[in-house]
């Protein structure tokens, strides 16, 4: 992402953030939105602010379609956009990449964020059992 920051003054770009709910997409998205600068579109925040059930899939789908239309308008106007949709399916990512490329714009690789189980220690390796409370195994 550092290369993106170095080129921030260049042409607008679409940035896709991928990951499961709670995996840590929002924290870097907020920082990048300030640093690039970019408009960040996050359906979870809008749904929460509007009091909409987070599991209302038809509403989420309509909101994401509207955000995508808005993102394309912003890109045409020269504004970089961060889409924080999760993008679990490859077809979703490919659709957005193709749309941005049709506008003649670069697309940053979809960034993956991972959530580790509570107590998991990256320093101890992938095959280590999570620690129990109190520091004992």
From TrEMBL:
Pfam families: AAA_33 (PF13671). SUPFAM superfamilies: P-loop containing nucleoside triphosphate hydrolases. It comes from the Bacteria. Keywords: ATP-binding, Nucleotide-binding. InterPro entries: P-loop_NTPase. GO terms for molecular function: ATP binding. This is ATP-binding protein. It comes from Nonomuraea montanisoli.
